[in-house]
Amino acid sequence: MYPLLADDEKTRYARNIKIPQVGEVGQRKLKAASVLIIGLGGLGSASALYLAAAGVGHISLMDYDQVELHNLNRQIIHDTTRLGMLKVDSAFNRLKDLNPNIKIDKYANKLTTSSGGDIITKFPIIIDGTDNFETRYIINDLCVRNRKVYIYGAVFQFSGQVSVFDAAQGPCFRCIFPKLPPEEVINANRGVGVMGTLPGTIATLQAIEAIKIILGIGSPLIGRLLLYDALDMEFREVLVKKNNKCPVCKRKKSDL
Fold first, then answer.
1. Rounded to an integer, what distance in angstroms lies between the CA atom of residue 51 and that of residue 62?
2. Is 0.90 topped by the overall pTM?
3. Tell me, what's the pLDDT at 256?
4. Helices (H), the chain
5. Domains of the chain and any CATH numbers
C-alpha cells in the first residue's frame, strides 16, 4: 500500500497527477520511493531539485565537499550565501525550502567500497552526480553486488552522456568502461571545463529515468548509452550489451 497524499500534496503535484501515466496512484508511488544521489555538483544539484519537486518522498544526499565560488556556474542548488558550507547542508536547506513534505538524509563523507555498501543497500535507485572514474567504479560494483539500479551521467564542455545500468537486465558500467584510463588521462581531465547548462540537461534526463523506473512506465535507458552534443544540438544512441567477460556482473548472484 502506498502512502496517501495530503490535500496540500494533491495541490502541489496537481500537474503530475493530471498525466495519465501518473495519476494519484503514481504520485503515491513517488511519495513512497527513495533515491540516493552521490555527488552534489552540477549533475546532483539539478537531479535533486527535480526529484524533490516531483515528490520523491525520500532523497538521500552524499558529498564531502564545501561550496566554492567556481561551483556556481553549474551547481544551481547552491548560492553565494552558502560559500564554505558543506554541500550536503546547502542542498538540504534548499530542498527543504522547495518541498518540506519530503524526507532528506545527509552523508557528509566520501564514498568508499567499505563504507558505501551499508548506505547503498538502503536505496533501490542510485544517481551518479560524480565527476571521476574511480568513484563510478565503486558505485557500479556496489550496485551490482546489492542489485541496485545505477543511473549514470557525465559531462564535458558541450557534451554529455547518460545511461541506466541494471545488471539484472543489461550491462553494468564496467561492461562499457572495463578499465580505468591511464593516470595521465585522469589527471588531464580533473577540473576540465563544462558549460553550466550541460549538467542541467543531463541531470534532468537522469531524474526522468529515475521517475520512469519508480512508476514502471516507458523504456529506461538500460542497454542504451545516450550521447548529447549541445553544439550541434544532437542526440545519438549507442546500443550496449553485457560483456560476458566483465569481472563484476558476469559473476553468479551467489558469488556477489
1. 15
2. yes
3. 43
4. 7-12, 14-17, 23-32, 42-54, 87-98, 113-120, 133-146, 173-176, 183-188, 197-215
5. 7-255 (3.40.50.720)
